[in-house]
Fold each of these.
Amino acid sequence: MAVAFSPDGKLLASASGDKKIKLWDVSSGAALKTLEGYSRSVNAVAFSPDGKLLASALDDEIVKLWDASSGVALHTFEGHWSMVYTIAFSPDGKLLASASRDKTVKLWDTVSGALLQTLEGHSSWVSAIAFSPDGKLLASASDETVKLWDAGSGVALQTLEGHSGHVNAVAFSPDGKLLASASDETVKLWDASSGAALQTLEDNSDSVT
């Protein structure tokens, strides 16, 4: 299952094992649209920063892009060969990143639907992705590592190592200077520019997500 608010907070997208996405009016609770046409359940949903687009990742290799207002399907992104776990829009909404069990991250043009980059180098499934606030960097988490990529060129810039378990989540600070990664009962803080490890936050009773 997955849920996501639109940036203005007026819409909520929800997805479940019934192979459908529903768009809800948050203030009234009314169901506005049902997006159908899936053969598998939906793993993730995300609105673009301007709220005009909705992306969805399926429990297979497919990513779809929708007009959030009309519910019309705009693009179907095909290229992964295994389950897509998570998706993320760049801050300007021009790129959509998708992370898969096939150990890759793909970058798509949200206007043309073209595949722009395939980021390879992880040794296991990619569990989390995040763009920096300026859109120049993309962080991806897999196995016990985090990789930092140039979002424009697709070049791998840094591999951040230090976790002892699978990394479940990544997030940039609002100013883009720090990157946090969560795993194995710890959170690590990194310098996003140099890749240097700054702090390890512990004392969690279970895995951090």
Note: The chain has a mean pLDDT of 90.
Amino acid sequence: MKRRRIEPIYTNTYRQLRNRSRRLRFFSILLILIIIAGGWFGYRHYRDQQLSHYRVRGVTLDQANGFVDFQQLSQQGFQFAYLRATSGATYTDDQFQSNYDRSQGSSLKMGVYHVYSYTTSPKAQFKNFEREVGYREGQLPIAVQVTTYGKYNARYLRQSEPQKKLLQLVSLLQQHYDKRIIIWCTPNIWQSVNQTSLARYKTWLQTSSLSHQSGQVVFITYDEKATVKLNGQSQTVPASVFNGSQRQWHSWSTQ
């Protein structure tokens, strides 16, 4: 006669607890995913509401974007584009001149920008910009992008010597091209320089916050990875808005 297997009395209890624990983990993970998805959709809805107050949108482009059809950008509702021309004293963007020349057949207002370097002289940076850009400076003000890296941060820019160097480059560009200059930076950097002589220049803020920006702010880069259609494919580009109405844009961009 086959002997019957007798399991300990706690075996079923253990299995029930283990199954209950698995169900709890599953529903906990599901709840977390629902909260994350809800937060993401809520944020997108909030940002779309904010964006509805800004009618004028634009993009910034560099060589990483390859060949760009500027008519396509215009058809997607963009009204301006900024092209990277140079960085520091030696770097030039491979696509700048060809992009600029092709953009002239579109209805986009065009601007160019230089990426500032802390480690090379303002005169050398100006010469690099002048050689590459020539008179392809566009209709919009020239932008100088000031970023941070390593020890070159917002605190560093509170010192008088770095401020003087940045001001020297901005002055050289303004005098040579007889154009307005915009300083493109983060809010932290702008706080470091807005009590200096640089405060007389308008700013282009790189921030996801679209609300309560002062009249000192001309552009706001609200999304570093906005999706646009270029050459039949989706690409991500930094997207910006003009801090004003359509009527103000027309007046400001034609000065």
Note: The chain has a mean pLDDT of 87.
